[in-house]
Amino acid sequence: MAVLRDATQPSGTGAFAVIQAMAPLLRVVQVIAIDLRETGQIERDVAAFARAPNGGLITPAGAAGSLYRDLTIVLAARHKLPAIYIDRSYAAVGGLMTYGRLY
User: Fold this and answer.
1) What are phi and psi of 34, to 5 degrees?
2) Could you report how far apart the first and last alpha carbons of the chain are, in Å?
3) In whole angstroms, what is the distance from residue 24 CA to residue 39 CA?
4) How does DSSP assign 25-43, residue by residue?
5) Domain around 74
6) 74: exposed, middle or buried (C-beta count within 10 Å: 0-12, 13-18, 19+)?
7) What DSSP designation does 60 have?
């Protein structure tokens, strides 16, 4: 699993830590962070992650997630990665599924 996060924000590092801690309970073997900081780097990191089998993406809350919303949806589709996002605005523009906030 790859967590798309903003490493400059406590919410980004905190959410990653929680996901990483819970992963073994869900039999998730590996959790990596993909930092949302620059378009080209995000594209390269997602492409590299997608080369391994059985991966998926999760985008926790944060301003960077919103800023790169459309890019992450396109990359998930391009690389055929299942992805889950923080709110329904992602699904409204093509994201696979959401959790959390309903507005």
Assistant:
1) -115, 115
2) 26
3) 30
4) GGT----EEEE-S-HHHHH
5) 2-101
6) middle
7) -
CA distance 22 to 31: 10
CA distances from 3 to 57, 103 (A): 6, 22
CATH number at residue 94: 3.40.50.2300
In the DSSP assignment, the letter for residue 24 is G
Q: How many CA atoms lie within 13 A of 37 on its CB side?
A: 11
Contact criterion met (CB below 8 Å) for 33 and 15? no
Q: What is the pTM of this model?
A: 0.88
Q: Please give the structure tokens belonging to residue 82.
A: 């299942």
Q: Looking at the 3D structure of the chain, how many domains does it have?
A: 1
**14-55 pLDDT, tens digit each:** 889 999 999 999 999 999 999 999 999 999 999 999 999 999
Q: Please give the residue that has the higher pLDDT: either 51 or 11.
A: 51
